[in-house]
Design a protein that fits this description.
It contains six helices and 14 strands. Strand 2, helix 1 and strand 3 (50-57) form a beta-alpha-beta unit. The protein has two domains: 5-193, Aminopeptidase (3-Layer(aba) Sandwich); 212-279, RNA polymerase II/Efflux pump adaptor protein, barrel-sandwich hybrid domain (OB fold (Dihydrolipoamide Acetyltransferase, E2P), Beta Barrel). The strands form two sheets. An eleven-stranded mixed sheet has the order 1-3-2-4-7-5-6-8-14-13-10, sandwiched between helices. A three-stranded antiparallel sheet has the order 9-11-12, with no helix packed on it. The model has no long low-confidence stretch (mean pLDDT 92). Helices cover 22% and strands 30% of the residues. By secondary structure, it is α/β, with parallel strands linked by helices. It holds the Pfam family AstE_AspA_cat. GO terms for molecular function: hydrolase activity, acting on ester bonds; metal ion binding. Residues 14-177 form the Succinylglutamate desuccinylase/Aspartoacylase catalytic domain.
């Protein structure tokens, strides 16, 4: 078995579910959630009725050091061909090779994250899978991630490529530990929906708000700045200032929503510092 992976077998045949947590070491809420879930099953508080459930602490080294990654962003390395600049001796590269078979072989895949600036949980999912994850009970969905080559190499996209139904749950803010219960409850809701545990589904929260990404803001130069007042899902009017990206004064060309803004000083050149989206 893969180090950091916990596999639970159901009584009967059923779907193969894989859940990653802690792909970024500064996002521990998902890791705590799957540890609680594994404890529930191992102590007999819950029973897996069918299928298999594999729970994975993805980036164990970064989790131990409480930092996003050691050498590379693990969630950009799930590729069949990586860039020449990739250190193929690094922990993250080797870990991605170890984890990729799980993504190729599952029917459903969830990865649990948190965001640096987020006041509420949201789901990142391709439009064709929106209906599949509505039972999770999350009120905001973000789509369009897979349309951008610059964002390739994420676990959700890799699982989708091999036929899984996949999504990414951003359970809230990095520093808000209520994300543990958000992630835990979301996973229970989906396991219940799939008939894998005996539990009651939460009441429907109605149709979610859906946002489609149309632009990725990449940090181009060392000096870049995203205003600290910016929040996730901020509405930005056409022509309004978004950020300083090196010498570029970035303004929106249309009314838009700012998604997942990151403190630019903490991101490397070539990494994302935010996204612009349209509300569907």
């Amino acid at each position: 078995m893969i180090c950091g992976a916990m596999r639970i077998e159901g009584k009967y045949e059923g779907p193969r579910i894989v859940i990653f947590a802690g792909e970024h070491g500064d996002e521990p809420c998902g890791a705590y959630a799957i540890e609680k879930l594994f404890y529930d099953f191992s102590m007999g508080a819950r029973e897996l009725l069918k299928g298999t459930l594999t729970l994975v602490r993805a980036n164990e080294v970064a989790l131990a050091e409480n930092k996003r990654y050691v050498v590379h962003n693990l969630n950009r390395l799930y590729k069949d061909t990586n860039a020449e600049s990739t250190d193929m001796s690094s922990y993250e590269y080797l870990r991605a090779q170890e984890l990729k078979p799980l993504l190729r072989e599952c029917n459903y895949f969830l990865t649990l994250h948190s965001a640096p600036i987020a006041d509420e949980p949201f789901l990142v999912v391709e439009e064709r899978h929106v209906e599949a994850f509505r039972p999770m009970g999350i009120r905001k969905f973000v789509t369009g991630w897979g349309a951008f080559d610059v964002l390739g190499g994420d676990s959700e996209g890799y699982a989708n490529t091999y036929g899984a139904v996949a999504c990414t749950l951003e359970a809230g803010n990095h520093t808000d530990m209520t994300g543990i219960s958000v992630a835990y409850s979301a996973v229970l809701s989906m396991l219940t929906h799939w008939g894998m545990i005996a539990d009651e589904l939460p009441q429907s929260s109605g149709r979610p708000e859906i946002f489609r990404i149309y632009e990725v803001i990449i940090k181009r130069e060392p000096f870049s700045w995203m205003g600290s007042a910016r929040r996730n899902f901020d509405f930005i009017r056409r022509g309004e200032f978004v950020c300083m990206n090196g010498k570029e004064y970035l303004q929106t060309e249309e009314d838009a929503y700012l998604l997942m803004p990151s403190p630019a000083e903490k991101q490397r050149v070539g990494e994302e510092i935010g996204y612009l989206a349209r509300k569907l």
